[in-house]
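Students often ask why inverse folding is considered easier than folding. One informal answer: many sequences map to the same fold, so there is more than one right answer. In these notes we will look at a single instance of the problem. The structure comes first.
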């Protein structure tokens, strides 16, 4: 019983001191709560968002019964022999064949379609969810499609600014068919913004019309609709192959990938759909790690200054029988309670934030993700962070053991109160600045923590500013494998390279053609695995060579670094490229960058491709750069008027480039979030540091007032010190950015096929974060210094 009473007594002592300590240092306590709230909120939201998208995709795939591998293959190429070889494979369970019509030339809401549209009959077994008008859920019983109506993926709203009632015009052999958008569907397989092909649903009546038109005009070279098959292949449960090996094996047996325009696994579809959310998540994960580092710096500073300022009280407690273990446990409990409160509130706030993030990424992913909270995963991560921080607190409080009750009698002060390795003389000129620098140098440890925090924030803010500005620059677009032009043209089936000279001749009548590039994008099998190929009319079009050289000869190709890592081959190695049962050996001449299909691509010239196909290559797209930029619109109008049978021309605007704009919007949202969080962190740090500085320098402030300094003078002097801190920290942040930004960005963006992004520094990318941080320090420190007014000269008498 005596032991129990003793334990209760000890516990009550600790509880009493803990409660008083929290009340006395409520500023630091609230700061830790707030910072932990931000970390737990961000971490829970990101983990939940990723899990929600993955689970939604899994359920959606199951609902529409998507095959493990899906091949988009024309009716002409899907032979009975290929069908037999696929179905007879021991790794195949069964297949499902969906007939469709591929419309290559279509206009969506008065914009030329950037990809082929696969039109499927929306019969009674239609399984795709239809969004309601607010896009917050799905229609319970979607209306059947009438003739002239079409359901399209939700990503069409982003791609073409579509609305219900928008018109889609399908080009036929000698006529056009107009369809009205009845609603938007969730297509988890190829409905995402990033997918190069799209699936839409039409009425059974319209599907028959399209099929009949194709049958009647099959020999017409002008026909722009083709009968296709969406061939779903299901892997047997007994198969031991990975999805990638299964796909390669099926192609080696049957050649179905070689004969299709595209073959994709459900795993690949999920990966492509999550590309931008994964990039955004990775960026925010890095930021959270930096935030955790910042929190530990602030905690370390708070503990050190707290022990220094409470030296006398801690010495007295030691003299009264409090062991160092008890005193350390008080600190540990104080920070643990603050972290726990922050973690709980952060997890609660993450609920609406997760829903908001799902809505932000919905136009890109094309799915309505659930808004669940991944509580178990999030709590595990948060608990891990809390344990790490508590261990850090325990480590930082080790200096309590050095506190001497005897020394506490003298206030615990060192023999030299003012200590600086640079003695800055006090003079009449620039007095405030001299005092600020003197205080800065005499409290190096206190201000060093703030400098480090500022450096980290400026580094990350500057890095994100550089990315968002670089992504729309000409250099960056070309480094991603894009082509910068004045006029973009999409070809029709009538277009051949024989027409190129005639087109350029007509352009030269208006203004000289500076550069022209003709291209085609197809899928070929490289060593029996299907990959995206970028094919150009001339080797010089490959401007994103990272290593080696461009493919000068017709037996050379270039591949991306990401594809090189996957196939484990590099410059000088030989690969087999095949299509439609034809194959040739090629040498890898260099590594280039191209971000389509998450960077798993290779490139070759028309001559190289013709060596395999043994047919003349027809360009799919071509690009012109002209000398007189004022005549871009005139040239565009001329092309559409004189060559409407072979092309459709548009003026190229880098700011309206669909792919660039998507990345830009995503990065803008992430950058804005990082800027907001950074400003909040600065507010917390300034408030916390100012509060401690005020308590520590209360006597100094009294002295200043006694010799004639006004409240305004002292507040200005107080603010000036933080300006010095923010400027010094910003300089270190800029240096960090110069050293690490490129490496960090390339590592994060590799997931979407960008292995080397050309980063460009400008006055804006440097000034935007540094000026914002410095201004915040000025405003927040001046506001926090208002406590100066409460100090009177009488403080000196009391002391």
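Output (designed amino acids):
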């Amino acid at each position: 019983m005596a032991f129990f009473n003793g334990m209760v007594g000890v516990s009550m002592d600790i509880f009493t001191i803990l409660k008083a300590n929290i009340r006395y240092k409520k500023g630091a306590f609230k700061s830790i709560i707030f910072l932990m709230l931000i970390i737990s909120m961000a971490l829970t939201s990101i983990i939940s968002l990723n899990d929600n998208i993955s689970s939604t995709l899994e359920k959606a795939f199951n609902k529409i019964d998507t095959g493990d591998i899906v091949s988009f293959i024309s009716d002409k190429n899907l032979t009975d022999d290929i069908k037999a070889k696929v179905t007879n494979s021991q790794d195949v369970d069964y297949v499902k064949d969906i007939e469709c019509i591929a419309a290559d030339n279509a206009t969506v809401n008065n914009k030329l379609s950037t990809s082929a549209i696969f039109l499927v009959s929306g019969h009674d077994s239609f399984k795709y969810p239809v969004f309601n008008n607010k896009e917050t859920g799905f229609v319970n019983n979607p209306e059947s499609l009438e003739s002239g109506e079409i359901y399209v993926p939700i990503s069409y709203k982003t791609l073409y600014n579509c609305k219900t009632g928008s018109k889609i015009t399908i080009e036929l052999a000698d006529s056009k068919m107009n369809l009205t958008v009845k609603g938007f569907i969730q297509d988890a397989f190829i409905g995402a913004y990033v997918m190069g092909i799209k699936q839409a649903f039409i009425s059974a009546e319209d599907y028959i019309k399209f099929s009949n038109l194709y049958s009647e005009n099959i020999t017409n070279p002008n026909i722009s609709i083709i009968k296709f098959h969406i061939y779903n292949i299901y892997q047997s449960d007994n198969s031991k192959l990975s999805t990638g090996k299964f796909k390669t094996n099926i192609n080696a047996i049957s050649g179905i990938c070689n004969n299709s325009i595209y073959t994709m696994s459900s795993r690949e579809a999920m990966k492509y759909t999550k590309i931008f959310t994964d990039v955004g998540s990775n960026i925010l994960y890095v930021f959270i790690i930096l935030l955790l580092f910042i929190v530990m710096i602030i905690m370390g500073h708070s503990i050190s200054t707290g022990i220094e300022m409470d030296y006398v009280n801690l010495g007295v407690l030691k003299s009264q029988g409090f062991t160092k273990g008890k005193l350390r446990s008080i600190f540990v409990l104080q920070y643990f309670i603050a972290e726990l409160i922050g973690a709980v509130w952060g997890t609660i706030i993450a609920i609406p934030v997760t829903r908001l993030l799902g809505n932000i990424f919905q136009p890109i992913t094309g799915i309505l993700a659930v808004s669940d909270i991944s509580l178990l995963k999030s709590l595990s991560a948060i608990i891990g962070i809390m344990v790490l921080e508590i261990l850090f607190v325990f480590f930082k409080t080790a200096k309590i053991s050095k506190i001497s009750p005897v020394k506490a009698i003298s206030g615990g002060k060192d023999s030299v109160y003012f200590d600086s390795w640079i003695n800055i003389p006090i003079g009449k000129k620039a007095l405030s600045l001299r005092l600020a620098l003197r205080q800065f140098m005499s409290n190096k440890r206190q201000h060093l923590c703030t400098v480090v925090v500022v450096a980290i924030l400026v580094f990350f803010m500057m890095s994100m500013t550089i990315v968002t500005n670089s992504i729309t620059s000409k250099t960056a677009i070309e480094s991603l494998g894009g082509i910068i032009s004045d006029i973009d043209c999409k070809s029709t089936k009538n277009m051949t390279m024989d027409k190129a000279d005639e087109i350029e001749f007509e352009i030269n009548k208006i203004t000289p053609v500076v550069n022209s590039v003709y291209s085609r994008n197809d899928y070929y099998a490289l060593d029996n695995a299907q990959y995206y190929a970028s094919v150009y009319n001339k080797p010089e079009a490959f401007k994103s060579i990272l290593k080696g050289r461009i493919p000068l000869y017709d037996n050379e190709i270039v591949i991306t670094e990401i594809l090189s890592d996957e196939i484990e081959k590099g410059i000088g190695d030989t690969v087999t490229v095949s299509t439609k049962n034809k194959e040739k050996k090629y040498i890898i001449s260099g590594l280039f960058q191209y971000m389509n299909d998450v960077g798993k691509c290779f490139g070759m010239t028309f001559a190289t491709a013709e060596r395999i196909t043994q047919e003349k290559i027809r360009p799919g797209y071509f690009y012109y750069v002209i000398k007189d930029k004022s005549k871009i619109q005139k040239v565009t109008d001329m092309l559409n008027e004189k060559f409407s049978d072979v092309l459709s021309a548009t003026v190229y605007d880098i700011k309206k480039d669909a792919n660039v704009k998507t990345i830009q919007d995503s990065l803008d949202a992430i950058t804005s979030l990082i800027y907001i969080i950074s400003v909040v962190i600065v507010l917390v740090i300034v408030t916390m540091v100012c509060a401690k500085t005020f308590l520590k320098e209360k006597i100094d402030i009294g002295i200043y007032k006694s010799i004639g300094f006004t409240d305004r003078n002292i507040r200005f002097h107080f603010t000036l010190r933080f300006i010095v801190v923010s400027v010094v920290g910003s300089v270190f942040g800029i240096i960090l950015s110069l050293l690490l930004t490129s490496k960090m960005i390339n590592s994060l963006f590799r997931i979407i096929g960008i292995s080397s992004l050309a980063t460009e520094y400008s006055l804006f990318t440097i000034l935007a974060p540094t000026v914002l941080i410095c201004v915040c320090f000025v405003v927040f420190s001046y506001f926090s210094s208002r406590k100066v007014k409460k100090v009177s000269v009488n403080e000196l008498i009391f002391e």
